[in-house]
Automatic annotation (TrEMBL):
Higher taxonomy: Eukaryota, Viridiplantae, Streptophyta, Embryophyta, Tracheophyta
Pfam families: PLATZ
InterPro entries reported in the protein's UniProt record: PLATZ (IPR006734), Znf_B-box (IPR000315)
Gene Ontology MF, one: zinc ion binding
Name of this chain's protein: B box-type domain-containing protein
Keywords attached to this entry: Metal-binding, Zinc, Zinc-finger
Span of domain B box-type: 18-57
Domain of life according to the entry: Eukaryota
Organism: Salvia splendens
């Protein structure tokens, strides 16, 4: 059984215009409440319950994506191929339509057969979840109890800026900075990026 938030997230049509704020600019529904299990627009945030945990959905190539940093606090994202947009890793929410079919020799998504980089088995969150459901596996083993403070309303203060700088390049994350390096600690973001190890602290030879 999928939890209600996951069911809602996978079924929701994001980036449709908000019915309440039809006459406002930037009224696309790109915020998902993990408590109410529904989406709404940034204008709705003002009247939304302030303590509800919220997830921001972004758009790339007309598809819904979620930052890996956010999503991996909710669900185990291993084997889902991440993409890098404006230096942030994202996961596609749903499988994308594709014209070519896989020739059988390449590594491809277990569910939709999209060609993937080597260590990955799924192109999107829904392909992983659907595969597990299809296999009769228990989803609770990949679901995490999340900390509400990680999804607080304060993270939306920069929403307008985020919406302005769309259009960055997407490249599949390289193997080197792939999934293993993504569980970085807060505050160490810059240092741990790319999983580079620093050697012993250097001391001046004169001291
Ligand atoms: Zn809510
Ligand atoms: Zn609205
Ligand atoms: Zn897929």
């Amino acid at each position: 059984m999928k939890p209600a938030w996951l069911e809602g997230l996978m079924a929701e049509s994001f980036f449709a215009a908000c019915g309440v704020h039809q006459n406002c600019r930037k009224n696309e529904k790109n915020i998902f409440c993990l408590n109410c299990c529904q989406s709404f627009c940034p204008h709705c945030l003002l009247s939304h319950h302030p303590s509800h945990p919220l997830l921001q959905v972004r758009r790339y190539v007309y598809q819904d994506v979620i930052r890996l940093d956010d999503l991996e606090k909710l669900i185990d994202c291993s084997y889902i191929q991440p993409y890098t947009i404006n230096s942030a890793k994202v996961i596609f929410l749903n499988q994308r339509p594709q014209s070519r079919s896989c020739n059988g020799s390449a590594n491809s998504c277990y569910t939709c057969y999209r060609i993937l980089q080597d260590p990955f088995h799924f192109c999107s969150l829904s392909c992983k979840v659907n595969y597990m459901v299809y296999q009769g596996e228990n989803l609770s083993q990949i679901l995490y109890k999340f900390d509400h403070s990680d999804f607080s309303i304060s993270q939306f203060e920069d929403l307008r800026v985020d919406m302005a700088d769309e259009g960055g390049h997407v490249t599949p994350s390289s193997i080197l900075e792939g999934y293993g390096g993504s569980k970085k600690k807060r505050g160490l973001l810059m240092l741990s990026f790319g999983n580079r190890r620093k050697g012993a602290p250097q001391r001046s030879p004169l001291s």
